[in-house]
Amino acid sequence: MRITLIAVGKTEDKYLIEGIEKYLSRLKHYINFNIVIIPDIKNTKSLSEAQQKTKEAELISKQINPTDVVVLLDEKGKKHSSISFSAYLNKQMIGSVQNLVFIIGGPYGFDETIYKRSNTSVSLSDMTFSHQMVRLFFVEQLYRAFTILKNEPYHHA
Q1: What is the pLDDT of residues 84-121, one digit of tens each?
Q2: For site-directed labelling of 39, which of 47, 60, 76, 149 has its Cα 20 to 30 A away?
Q3: pLDDT tens-digit series, residues 23-53
Q4: Residue 92 in contact with residue 3, Cβ under 8 Å?
Q5: End-to-end CA separation in angstroms for the chain
Q6: CA-CA distance, 49 to 117, in Å (whole number)?
Q7: CB–CB of 101/1 below 8 Å?
Q8: How far, in whole angstroms, is CA 64 from its chain's centroid?
Q9: Is the pTM of this model over 0.85?
Q10: Which of 104, 74, 65, 71 is nearest to 89 (CA)?
Q11: Which residues are annotated as a binding site for S-adenosyl-L-methionine?
């Protein structure tokens, strides 16, 4: 299985980039994982929220294959503990999923076309985080999930 994280806009804060890179290097030992960055939409001042979401959806859709299992990182999504998230990943691997795609939307969330294309959604918290921070939190939780599956001591349940 391969896991892809699609995110809108680049990460600018050095401390977040360093944290993400730390977990990316650790994840290499467990899974084929990559991050696809969708460029920020230009001239957003002249666009409504709906128009901005539509443009982002067009760019996101180009990165998704018909056979991909798509999971939105969305505030309305299913909440998992770290252990139940690892079980979810394990179920996908056992179910022969080839490519599991997680998506972090833009500042206004997802266009309806992306909601319709998704297979499910996951919420990382009831709290709101910057989209840049969510990337770090997600890759850390992904790493944690694999250490749980491998019975390694990183996660102390």
Answers
A1: 999 999 999 999 999 999 999 988 899 999 999 999 99
A2: 76
A3: 999 999 999 999 999 988 887 788 899 999 9
A4: no
A5: 26
A6: 20
A7: no
A8: 13
A9: yes
A10: 71
A11: 73, 105, 124-129
Is residue 102 within 8 A of residue 73, CB to CB? The reply is: yes
Residue set of the binding site: 73, 105, 124-129
User: Residue 154 carries which side chain, given as an amino acid letter?
Assistant: Y
Q: Residue 87 is encoded by which pair of tokens?
A: 């079980």
70, 98 in Cβ contact below 8 A? no
User: Domains in the chain, please, with CATH?
Assistant: 2-38+48-65+73-149 (3.40.1280.10)
Burial of 142 (0-12, 13-18, 19+ CB in 10 A): buried
Cα dihedral across residues 40, 33, 85, 133: positive or negative:
negative
Report how far Cα 50 is from the mean position of its chain's Cα atoms: 22
Q: Which residue has 């909601």 as its token pair? A: 115
